[in-house]
Design goal:
The structure is a single chain. The protein is 71% helix and 1% strand. With 669 residues, the protein is mostly helical. Helix 7 crosses helix 9 (181-190), helix 8 runs parallel beside helix 19 and helix 12 (240-256) runs antiparallel to helix 13. It starts with 16 loop residues before the first helix and ends with a helix.
Length: 669
């Protein structure tokens, strides 16, 4: 292993990014366009956030700025994403140019009339020309969402956007106030509750800066630095390369906010190293998929959905960050224990120290990444300047990076970073404005205020059944939609039922929805994160997905833990938080050990199928009993009773494991 970790061709097959994301190359005369759009967008955003006064015609009014963001980015979707995947290698067609130009003109119309829309209430009564532009904008948004986000988002957005037209003839639970086609079009495009609603507001006000920071971090060598740092610290220990994956993917994912790109960035280095020490291809891929998924749930950045969550809850983003700390620690702890147990059970060593990068050299070459990371955290948590923090961090990173001989930027590197950022911006904008139509439909019909009661009625007033319904719905929507899109729908439709109706903590409920939406990345049959890792590892996709599901199994329970006891999301006294955290940690250690059949200090948990099933089953129950919060309506036993149940399962299991080990050593060689 050298200081510059490289994938081993014997163990990996790096996927072609164009096969993962079907974005086409623009012709020579237009190749500069994405970089130019990003540059203009950044100038507009900086002017809007810092009040420089450069672009007063678009930044003096909030809604005008939002329209400007859409008018700038949405036309790119029709140029970069072809109408069908089979056209990704073909030149941009005439109708794509036409749609792009039409989107620019339509968006420009709303930018020019943003002040009139607000002052004269065009969302409810607009001139005929504005209504025609609304129809056109509506159609263009659905097609852009289809190209960038896929058919599921387009179909769901289109269907729900038309719902107000037939709301009065729908079945009882989803019957609502109807609207005419004109009223619906005006509301969708000119109110602040639909296309220009919370999803787009979060993107324009918060997400842009963090996406830029993530792109710059990768392009300046941040990924290689975190991987080398992880290898220098953990590469030599038992199962070291897999533990490296947790550390590097967790850090990188928390800042990039993307599961797939995280797998393709860190996986090409960590997966071959895992293969070198004898880990199966599917296991190595599963580790990387779980680590990359967990990275998106890990503070301080957590991806775009967390920013939308902060706006839905009307709390500072720092509150979301603090709430997510303990759940993410518990998730990575469970993953770490499973990897350690698997390595011990299979006698897997770490890499030789001579092959690993030097810690001193790694820190000497990339110390400024840690410094920039610290600045970002300080501005987020201490100063609570969420919108400005990523811009300051990016600026500092760019300045410090110019002193690095290895990663110093020239014009080419800056151009590539701007181009890559434009693709991220355009994709997310198309998806968010598409989902905005869904939110707008629920708002104009008034269903967003009544659907919560319908959910409570369907669940028969049972909080546990409501949670299970929420978990299943989040998971199913997460399969067909992006996590952000699934979260937004459920934040409007389901979250009120769990908060107002069931009396659960709002932050816990919204995190619950986010966690369950993320599970589709590691759960077959879709498991996009696991399938991307399988491509890198050269493993079977479904097998890798099943390994990821087993390794990340603790994440299926963590959301229920913090919903049942908000102390796990920092809601409560310091003593209560500490006690609940310690219990959860010990419980998850038991749970993860049982999943792999090995416990630190005990050894292998039985020999033979029957012994293992009994011992591991008892320890699994002991872990869950210890982690669960008792004394509430949902868990009708006290905490002391749960502790007794845990001890009653754990002690016999340990005794049986020891007896089994002794019997095994007495067998003839």
């Amino acid at each position: 292993m050298t200081t510059n970790a490289q994938p081993d061709p014997a163990y990996s097959a790096e996927p072609d990014p164009e096969k993962v994301v079907r974005i086409r190359q623009l012709p020579g005369p237009l190749a500069w366009l994405p970089a130019a759009v990003t540059s203009l967008l950044l100038l507009m955003t900086l002017d809007y956030l810092f009040n420089f006064g450069w672009f007063l015609f678009v930044s003096s009014l909030e809604t005008q700025f939002y329209y400007s963001v859409v008018a700038l980015l949405l036309p790119l979707v029709f140029l970069l994403w072809p109408a069908t995947a089979s056209l990704s290698s073909k030149p941009v067609s005439w109708y794509d140019y036409g749609l792009s130009g039409l989107t620019l003109i339509t968006g420009g119309y709303f930018v020019m009339h943003a002040e009139l829309i607000l002052e004269r209430g065009w969302a409810f009564a607009a001139p005929d020309l504005a209504i025609y532009f609304s129809y056109l904008f509506w159609l263009l948004i659905i097609e852009a969402a289809r190209r960038a986000g896929g058919w599921p988002i387009a179909i769901i957005a289109a269907t729900f956007s038309l719902y107000p037209l037939v709301a009065d003839i729908m079945p009882g639970p989803i019957q609502a106030f109807p609207s005419s086609l004109e009223e619906t079009a005006m509301y969708h495009t000119m109110s602040t509750e639909s296309v220009m609603g919370i999803p787009l507001q979060a993107f324009a006000g918060l997400v842009i800066g963090f996406l830029v920071f993530g792109v710059v971090l990768q392009k300046t060598g941040g990924g290689a630095f975190f991987i080398n740092l992880a290898f220098s610290l953990l590469g030599h220990v038992r199962g070291g390369p897999a533990k490296v994956s947790i550390f590097s993917s967790g850090l990188m994912g928390s800042m990039s906010g993307s599961v797939i790109s995280n797998v393709l960035t860190t996986g090409v280095m960590s997966i071959p190293a895992m293969r070198r020490i004898g880990m199966k291809r599917s296991f190595a891929g599963g580790v990387e998929a779980c680590a990359s998924t967990g990275g998106v749930l890990m503070p301080p950045v957590m991806g775009a959905t967390a920013f939308v969550m902060a706006m839905f809850l009307n709390v500072p983003y720092s509150a979301v960050v603090l709430a997510a700390v303990i759940p993410s620690v518990l998730y990575f702890l469970g993953l770490f224990i499973q990897i350690d147990a698997y390595s011990a059970r299979n006698d897997l060593k770490g890499l030789p120290k001579v092959e690993l990068p030097s810690l001193v050299t790694t820190l000497k070459e990339g110390w400024y990444f840690i410094f920039v990371f610290a600045l970002l955290v300080w501005m987020l948590l201490v100063l609570q300047r969420e919108a400005l923090a990523p811009f300051y961090a990016t600026a500092l990173l760019l300045v410090l990076n110019q002193f690095s001989k290895k990663h110093r930027w020239g014009l080419k590197q800056a151009y590539m970073a701007l181009t890559d950022a434009a693709k991220l911006f355009a994709e997310l904008t198309a998806i968010l404005v598409g989902v905005g139509l869904l939110v707008g439909a629920l708002s104009i019909t008034g269903l967003s205020g009544t659907i919560a009661n319908d959910f409570i009625f369907l669940a028969g007033g049972s909080i546990l059944l409501l949670l299970l319904m929420g978990a299943l719905t989040s998971f199913v929507l997460g399969i067909g939609m992006t996590v952000t899109a699934a979260y937004i729908f459920l934040a409007v439709a389901l979250a009120p039922a769990l908060t107002r109706g069931a009396g659960l903590d709002p932050m816990a409920v919204h995190l619950f929805i986010l966690y369950w939406g993320m599970l589709s990345f590691i759960t077959p049959p879709v498991a996009l994160g696991a399938f991307a890792a399988a491509t890198v590892a050269g493993a079977r996709p479904i097998e890798t997905g099943l390994q990821a599901m087993k390794l990340g199994s603790v994440i299926y329970f963590i959301p229920f833990l913090f919903v049942l006891n908000p102390a796990l999301i920092m809601q409560g006294s310091a003593l209560e938080i500490s006690v609940v955290f310690v219990q959860a940690v010990v419980g998850i250690v038991f749970f993860a050990s049982a999943m792999q059949g090995y416990m630190i200090g005990i050894g292998r948990l039985g020999y033979g199928v029957f012994q293992e099933v009994v011992i591991r089953g008892l320890i699994l129950v002991a872990g869950l009993a210890l982690a669960l919060p008792g004394g509430g309506d949902l868990i009708p036993v006290t905490q002391w009773q749960l502790l007794l149940i845990s001890a009653a399962c754990l002690l016999p299991a340990i005794g049986m494991a020891r007896w089994s080990q002794i019997k095994q050593t007495q067998l003839p060689a």
